[in-house]
Model the fold of this input.
Amino acid sequence: MSESYLANHVKELQPSGIRKFFDLASQMENVISLGVGEPDFVTPWNVIEASYHSLEQGYTAYTANAGLIELREEIGKYLRETFSISYNPEDQILVTVGASQAIDLALRAIVNAGDEVIVVEPCFVSYSPTISLAGGVSVSVSATADNEFKVTPEQIEAAITPRTKAIVLCSPNNPTGSVLSKEELYEIAQVVQKHDLIVLSDEIYAELAYDEAVSSIASVDGMEERTIVISGFSKSFAMTGWRLGYAVGPVAIMQAMTKIHQYTMMCAPTMAQHGALEALRHGNESVREMKTSYRQRRNFVVKALNEMGLSCHLPGGAFYVFPSIKETGYSSEEFAQRLLEEERVAVVPGQVFGESGEGYIRCSYATSIKQLDEAMKRMNRFVKRNSETNEP
Ligand code: PMP
Done:
């Protein structure tokens, strides 16, 4: 009955396919989860301590709407040194409640009713629902395995209509781990400029690139004025629960985002901002250690998957692999369901990340080598058993 009170655009939203799976897994025993998209590390101790200290010193009130000025300055310095992109902490940097809020604010700030926003699937599950909530229409383009799940400029151009306002890019990517090179970003930027679009560049995994340094599309000539860079502390500093992210971009857009933020959130959590300041000032070593460990796990898992016949490209970043399960003849949903029931390993069906994810599963390797080893043994058993009985 109370459903009749719901707004239509909310009724139409589907619950996240990832959650559904985890509710199922949480009712079972002895499950190894390769499902969750978060680090297995605890936040570095110096970051926790800095946050404690801020509380001891009585920093328990709101900060400026846009975030602590020292933190914004530190974010500006980090972006300048890492990606050669330059933003003024006064009016171009906004500290948010996770990258999630930054994505929401960016879309609400730029989308008019009916505007189209291009998303490159397979992609993070929040983009399309957030576009709908902002009144926009998401238009998907499929990145495919034959191009290592990287979108091409031609694909983007083909999806552009007179209603297209923006495109969401994510590199390194969730769920595929693909990284767009500097040259690939340059080519995409040419299409974006030709059609006068804005880019939402989700760079939350930028610190987790294993083979070459990540570039930001904002660093391409002419792109700083049409790019909103989204990032945060969840992945690189193992701070998912702290809920801290940020957005940087052109002044007018950042002012609009700050206005929405001011009315709907006031500011990001103060103690988390003090922790983040420490993370940026003294967190390099911890990031390096975590990265070394992720790289080792990535190599281990990719080898194991290919050996069991699930073909898998070597992803350049993030902490996911995206192997094909087509050989088994199962849909990604059936594969994940059966693997969970028969061998107690939780993975995410690729189809929840968009249609082009069908035929693949996402496995997170942000868990110990010991757990990964056991998970790969179980998966191998499952694949061997099922490829004997299951006609593709
Ligand atoms: N973007 C991507 C691509 C993600 O994978 C995630 C988290 N899974 C987020 C944004 C949201 O991160 P946060 O915890 O900072 O809200």
Summary: The mean pLDDT is 95. Residues 284-307 form the longest helix (24 residues).
